[in-house]
TrEMBL record:
Binding-site residues, S-adenosyl-L-methionine: D319, D366
Family membership noted in the UniProt record: Belongs to the class I-like SAM-binding methyltransferase superfamily. RsmB/NOP family.
Annotated region (Disordered), positions in chain: 1-69, 490-530
Protein origin, superkingdom: Bacteria
Name of this chain's protein: RsmB/NOP family class I SAM-dependent RNA methyltransferase
Organism of this sequence: Pigmentiphaga soli
UniProtKB keywords: Methyltransferase, RNA-binding, S-adenosyl-L-methionine, Transferase
Keyword S-adenosyl-L-methionine recorded: yes
Catalytic-site annotation from UniProt: C419
Biased composition (Low complexity): 490-500
GO function terms (MF aspect): methyltransferase activity
Keyword Mitochondrion: no
Length: 530
């Protein structure tokens, strides 16, 4: 076995999920800030003092068009020119740009992607300091991104004298002298929304760094220790460590091209951020249960849920996106699971959802969200989201959660999760849900996770992960349980006046005694295929 380690950046979890990225996406991913030769790269804030022969008061030297660095600046400027129109997710736009530039090799693509992602991470700061320069704004941004990733010295032969002077002036700016939101490169609305979080500076700084690559061992096919040993024994393999919380995870510091490794093709491993792995542990499905992954997407969490069920029972993978669910298919084939039923639904009130009213033992709502917990991988989201888009998402989340809750059997578990660190998408949603659904109660997430031997650091009512504290993406999850009997207040209310049943719901919901958790599962129960 030898995990390849020589090619394009590895599969990375992506926006709002943990699907493996497409080859184009891999090309689009930055490879981290480490220089190839191991030497520190001067950042745009700290360029090398060496100016070369062109420095001084002599005649102004124009940019050298023939130098390879000049071509690199042009490439990054061109890619940024498209991405900064915000017409679509940066990874998709960059993938398209690469397709339109087929002559670029792997190294070229890596350099461009790294610089582009660096600019997206630090866009506000770079725009601020770029104001002091001359010429096209995107060229100045490209120079800053490349100076941070390749080093200012590598660029100098391609810079005009005034550009080199400007880059040196930028390097002399003390970060502390910049306004906080500029220094951290964060939009005002996001800085304000996260001001209530402890040590939000550390959170923003961590979100501005490239993420390591987490993989997950498929418990149906492999042992983590064995995979770790193989990785460590491989020639030139990346540094591999067990993830601190998930018993299935391995964190890689390098960028192996995992999709050519046999452990990947045979389904022994998947790419999955540790936070997503913990989410499945919070759902904690058991053999033979009926489980719904309500927003399954490309099935990152579905795969682990199915494996935890040892491929027994039935696991519905719902999503409104046919394209996303289609990406689950090859992953399912590799995984060896036979208990997963993908279902494209029209919306959360699809009749096929209603047919499962009060039938599922576990329901996961991995809700569509702002994704600000994944800024390490998707830094463009902080510029593409806004208070208005977040508020629209909150409404969608509320509707999906309410619809998904109807599927939960008495005594069953509903897990609500986002890859956001915004309170409005997280605690506020759960509090609103509990206030409007007295038949549900909160189960302390820390207690559930402790059963799976997760070490301290995850205690508390909610699962709340931060990159600066836990090393994973930002995640939130709450475990809710439908009570076996109505809450006392609800029962008292029912005794006074029986509420009018919702016509639709009355049709769908089985009567009292339909507690599947106390009955053996009928294989035809809730059969959506019929
Ligand atoms: C955060 S992503 C899910 C990621 C996925 N669980 C994974 O692990 O890869 C949210 C998903 O919700 C889906 N979605 C949006 N609206 C929905 C709805 N009304 N009902 C079900 N799914 C919905 C989106 O298509 C998207 O795939």
């Amino acid at each position: 076995m030898e995990p390849p380690h020589d090619a394009a950046p590895a599969n990375r979890p992506s926006r709002g999920g943990d699907r493996p990225s497409s080859p184009a996406r891999r090309q689009a991913e930055p490879r981290g800030a480490a220089p190839r030769d191991g030497a520190p790269r001067p950042s745009p804030n700290r360029p090398s003092a060496h100016r070369g022969p062109a420095s001084g008061d002599g005649p102004r030297r124009p940019a050298s068009a023939g130098h390879p660095a000049a071509a690199r600046i042009d490439q990054v400027r061109s890619a940024l020119g498209e991405i900064l129109q915000w017409a679509g997710p940066a990874d998709q736009v960059l993938s398209r740009w690469f397709r339109e530039h087929p002559r670029l090799g792997g190294r070229d693509r890596g350099d461009v992607a790294e610089a582009v992602y660096d600019v997206l991470r630090h866009l506000r700061r770079y725009r601020h300091v770029a104001e002091g320069g001359r010429g096209a704004a995107t060229r100045r941004l490209a120079i800053l991104g490349l100076a941070a990733t390749l080093g200012a010295d590598a660029l100098r032969p391609a810079l005009a004298d005034d550009e080199a002077d400007w880059l040196e002036r930028v390097g002399a700016i003390a970060p502390e002298s910049l306004p906080r939101e500029v220094r951290l490169s964060v939009p005002d609305w996001l800085a304000e929304a996260l001001a209530i979080e402890p040590d939000s500076d550390a959170l923003f700084e961590a979100l501005n760094r490239a993420a390591p690559l987490d993989i997950r061992v498929n418990p149906m096919k492999a042992e983590r220790d064995a995979v770790l040993a193989e990785l460590r024994a491989a020639d030139g393999a990346p540094r591999a460590e067990p993830t601190p919380y998930s018993p299935f995870g391995i964190r890689l510091q390098g960028r192996p091209a995992l999709n050519r490794w046999q452990r990947f093709t045979d389904g022994s491993i998947e790419v999955q951020d540790e936070g997503s792995q913990l989410l499945a542990l919070l759902v904690a499905p058991r053999r033979g249960e009926m489980v719904i992954d309500f927003c399954a997407g490309a099935g990152g969490k579905t795969l682990l849920l199915g494996a935890l069920m040892r491929s027994t029972g039935r696991l519905y993978a719902f999503d409104v996106s046919q394209a996303r669910l289609a990406r689950l298919k090859p992953r399912l084939a590799r995984s060896g699971l036979s208990n997963v039923v993908p279902v494209v639904i029209a919306n959360e009130n699809d009749p096929r959802v209603k047919r499962l009213a009060r039938k599922a033992h576990r329901v996961l709502v991995d809700a569509p969200c702002s994704g600000v917990g994944t800024l390490r991988r998707n830094p463009d989201l902080k510029w593409r989201q806004s208070p208005e888009s977040v508020s629209d998402l909150c409404l969608t989340q509320r509707n999906i959660l309410a619809a998904a809750a109807r599927c939960v059997a008495p005594g069953g578990r509903l897990v609500y999760a986002t890859c956001s660190v915004l309170r409005v998408e997280n605690e506020d949603q759960v509090e609103h849900f509990l206030a409007t659904h007295p038949d549900f109660e909160l189960l302390p997430a820390g207690d559930i996770l402790a059963e799976r031997a997760a070490p301290p650091g995850l205690a508390g009512p909610y699962l709340k992960l931060r990159p600066d504290v836990h090393g994973s993406d930002g995640f939130f999850a709450a475990a809710l349980q439908r009570r076996l009997s109505p809450a006392p207040a609800q029962a008292a209310q029912a005794a006074v006046a029986l509420p009018e049943p919702d016509a639709e719901q009355a049709q769908d919901e089985p009567g009292p005694g339909a507690d599947l958790l106390s009955e053996p599962l009928d294989s035809t129960d809730g059969d959506l295929q019929a």
